TrEMBL record:
It comes from Pleomassaria siparia CBS 279.74. The conversion to 3-oxoalanine (also known as C-formylglycine, FGly), of a serine or cysteine residue in prokaryotes and of a cysteine residue in eukaryotes, is critical for catalytic activity. It comes from the Eukaryota. The lineage of its organism: Eukaryota, Fungi, Dikarya, Ascomycota, Pezizomycotina. Residues 41-392 form the Sulfatase N-terminal domain. One of its GO terms (molecular function) is N-acetylglucosamine-6-sulfatase activity. This is Arylsulfatase. The keyword Glycoprotein applies. Its EC number is 3.1.6.1.
Length: 594
């Protein structure tokens, strides 16, 4: 059976009143969070599907506010590194960038569950490591795309004490799901709402877990607020022609909510002038009928999330009843973000814009500051190291991320010392969800490399697309990412940024991206060290010293593609830092390059 493309898949500070912003002098963070209690802590990880941050979905989740935001810390600068379901989830569960897992799509040949297995990751990911550390592990909900009713046993997913997985092609059908428990055959649930089914399965695993004489790690992965997918032909579904992604379906009890709510009318919502590059710049402005339909789509997403809000309440209540709440970390996040109408785009993800890559991350638990926010930069590749540090297990030397500090002292130190960059990457297509209007349903050549960098006085997004178009946005002055400072009609040589010539700043950003686009291990965490082994450059500000002008502007290799590919084909991606074994070779003068 061929599934093909079916299987794809303001800021909250101040949203709920005054919150504590963590700042202060440096302190040494705890080396292991497991030492907070004499008994090893439990972990509940809740991972939603396609939940936005920038469209303010957290505003509409009062139980998450009550139990998580008010009782924990909101990491408001948290990013996924690849804005699509399966690659993002694999990075999250392995602590590795997608270019190192080589799972870069949601379906074969470049992604999905079969690719996860073929890369040897079924024997080498988070639940395996947790079990080695003495934890019982449970999982219910969506795991990966292409994990289906045909291949769930070929092989079974390893590493779980108990599991009840959603399976394709029914994963995204809210009222027609298929769940597969442990080694049992899949069970269809026609007419039952998938989130309510998930809730009961999660509560059951939690009850099982607390009876055992071992700490537990429970993952709850609802499909909400992902689109509802209707499959028209299960046997012939190539190129996305035989399925439809429509607005999610909420439970009956939530259908009446938010009748007048609309997508936030930010500056970049359906703008009068085109923005972006490549296919984005060619999008037509949406008609009022189109906008109205997308507002309905947005409301359905908020309604679908109400079931998730109730699950959080149910989990906290049961943890409290079992007497283990105070010794349990609860971590809440989403696999990737989402856009509706921004830059004239139809509902979807897969782009490097802030709406797609910036996602919720809220953590409560022993020693975690309550009702707090922090601006330290964190990513999905940091979550696996964080979980291992929580349980007191050794971190792996090949991690591309580093543990997220959870204590007040650790967060305070991280404000001074933690890295300021996010490595963003994507391969393949972009899919327009919802009703198709005046633009294509599928946009090809959506392959790019991106860099998000957030310092004390700067906030930039820089990217190079596979057609070698370039983008640079200054989010301090242009939070909607509408003004590309490297647009073809801009005289780059005459522009300044941070008080320097624009070309000087871009040369540094390009060199940093050159390292990150093929980095491994510690190089992904400390890329400036690869460029400056003497460790005399720790951030963009340091790199802008005039002493490095020749190095960056004359000697360095440039990020470039030789062609567009739908997957990670190394020889299409230009020079590779790790592969070439040198920081620069055969440099091109920056003035010639621009």
């Amino acid at each position: 059976m061929v599934w093909s493309s079916l299987l794809w898949t303001n800021w909250a500070l101040g949203l709920f009143g005054q919150q504590q912003v963590i700042s202060g002098p440096e302190h040494r963070p705890q080396d292991s969070y497991a030492s907070v209690n004499s008994k090893r802590p439990n972990v509940v990880f809740i991972l939603t599907d396609d939940q936005d941050l920038h469209m303010q979905s957290l505003d509409y989740l009062p139980l998450i506010k009550k139990h998580l935001l008010d009782q924990g810390t909101f990491y408001r600068k948290h990013f996924c590194t690849v804005a699509i379901c399966c690659p993002s989830r694999v990075s999250l569960l392995t602590g590795k960038a997608a270019h190192n897992t080589n799972v870069t799509d949601v379906n074969p040949p470049y992604g999905g569950y079969p690719k996860f297995v073929s890369q040897g990751l079924n024997e080498n990911f988070l639940p395996i490591w947790l079990q080695e550390a003495g934890y019982n592990t449970y999982y219910t909900g969506k795991l990966f795309n292409w994990h289906s009713v045909d291949n769930y046993h070929s092989p079974f997913v390893k590493g779980f004490t108990g599991s009840d997985f959603l399976l394709d092609p029914f994963t995204y059908q809210y009222l027609n799901s298929a769940y597969q428990r442990n080694r049992d055959a899949p069970v269809r649930h026609v007419g039952e709402h998938t989130t309510d089914l998930l809730a009961e399965k999660a509560y059951g695993f939690l009850d099982d877990a607390v009876k055992e004489d071992a700490p537990f790690f429970l993952t709850i992965a609802p499909v909400a607020p992902h689109s509802n997918a209707q499959v028209n032909d299960l046997t012939e579904n190539v190129g996305g022609k035989n399925y439809e992604f429509r607005a999610p379906i909420p439970a009956k009890r939530h259908e009446h909510l938010f009748k007048d709510v609309k997508v936030p009318r930010t500056e970049n919502f359906n703008p009068k002038e085109p923005s972006g590059v490549n296919w984005v710049r060619g999008l037509p402005r949406q008609s009022q009928e189109n906008v109205d339909a997308n507002d309905h789509f947005y409301r359905q997403r908020l309604r679908a999330l109400q079931g998730v809000d109730e699950i959080v309440d149910g989990i906290v209540s049961r943890l409290e009843q079992h007497g283990v709440l105070d010794n349990t970390y609860i971590v809440y996040s989403a696999d990737n973000g989402y856009h509706i109408g921004q830059h004239r785009m139809q509902p979807g993800k897969e782009c490097g814009f802030e709406e797609d890559i910036r996602v919720p991350l809220i953590i409560r638990g022993p020693g975690v500051p309550k009702n707090a926010t922090t601006d330290i930069v964190t990513t999905h590749t940091d979550l696996a190291p964080t979980f291992l540090q929580i349980v007191g297990a050794p971190l792996r030397p090949d991690f591309d991320g580093e543990a997220i500090p959870l204590s007040k002292a650790g967060i305070q130190e991280a404000t001074q010392k933690r890295h300021e960059h996010v490595n963003v990457e994507y391969w393949g297509i972009a899919l327009a969800e919802g009703k198709v209007w005046d633009s294509p349903k599928i946009h090809t050549n959506n392959t790019y490399k991106g860099l998000r960098i957030l310092g004390e006085s700067y906030s930039f997004y820089y990217s190079v697309w596979c057609n070698n178009e370039h983008e640079l946005y200054d989010l301090n002055t242009d939070p909607g990412q509408l003004k590309n400072l490297l647009a073809r009609d801009v005289k780059v040589e005459q522009q300044t940024l941070l008080g320097f010539p624009l070309t000087k700043v871009v040369a540094r950003l390009d060199s940093l991206l050159f390292v990150l686009k093929s980095c491994k291990g510690r190089t992904c965490i400390q890329p400036w060290r690869a460029l400056h082994p003497a460790a005399n450059v720790e951030n963009l500000h340091d790199a802008l010293s005039p002493r490095y002008d020749h190095f960056y502007e004359v000697q360095q290799q440039r990020v470039e593609y030789s062609r567009c590919e739908a997957g990670y084909i190394v020889d299409a991606e230009g020079p590779q830092f790790e592969r070439d074994g040198a920081v620069y070779r055969h440099g091109t003068r920056w003035s010639e390059w621009v």
